[in-house]
Amino acid sequence: MKLTTMTQVTIDGVMQGNGGASDEDRRNGFERGGWARGKGDDETRTFITQTYQRAEAFLFGRRTYELFAGSWGSIDQTHPIGVALNEAPKYVASTTLTAPRWKDTTVLRGDLAAAISELKAKPRGELQVHGSGALTRWLLENGLVDEMTLIVIPVILGQGARLFPETGPDLALDLVESRVDSKGVTIQVYRPAGRPRYATA
């Protein structure tokens, strides 16, 4: 399976608390949640929905898994994203989750790289990661991401957890696709391309 990630970020790289409720994620005094709600036009919403629909399986970090399980997994869903999430197998990278409440969930423990590599070795389909910032960073650092989609919302928050930390490993990216919608939301699809090259004197 191809491993892909999709993350909504602000212009200043924040991914925390993007969802519907302003109090969705208040870690570290974060007060500016809900910044992605209602952003993007119909074309962008269709792109996001179609992305979920093509997933063979989903991979989550624990925090995002519990957030999704509490919304998409807790009520009868007729929305296409809810249908996709509820029908596909779900995998959670966690050392502490013992009793997942969402059907078709497998907790990955032990050698995470080996477990994910085994999933990726399956012959077809797409293993998707949504949100899950710490997991996404780890996957990139370990060379396990095949494609990364960033949905950039035109807002600067000035606080909150960022997708990429201030210091970390470097990575070159090849742009596969780029579009901007009528509300200024951009969608950028990248493939990792090894280490960047730096200019020399």
From TrEMBL:
Top-level taxon: Bacteria
UniProt GO MF annotations: 5-amino-6-(5-phosphoribosylamino)uracil reductase activity
UniProt-listed InterPro entries: DHFR-like_dom_sf, RibDG_C, Riboflavin_Biosynth_HTPR
Domain Bacterial bifunctional deaminase-reductase C-terminal: 3-186
Region Disordered, residue ranges: 13-38
TM ranges: none
GO biological process: one example: riboflavin biosynthetic process
Gene3D superfamilies: Dihydrofolate Reductase, subunit A
Name of the protein in its database record: Dihydrofolate reductase
Upper taxonomic lineage: Bacteria, Bacillati, Actinomycetota, Actinomycetes, Streptosporangiales
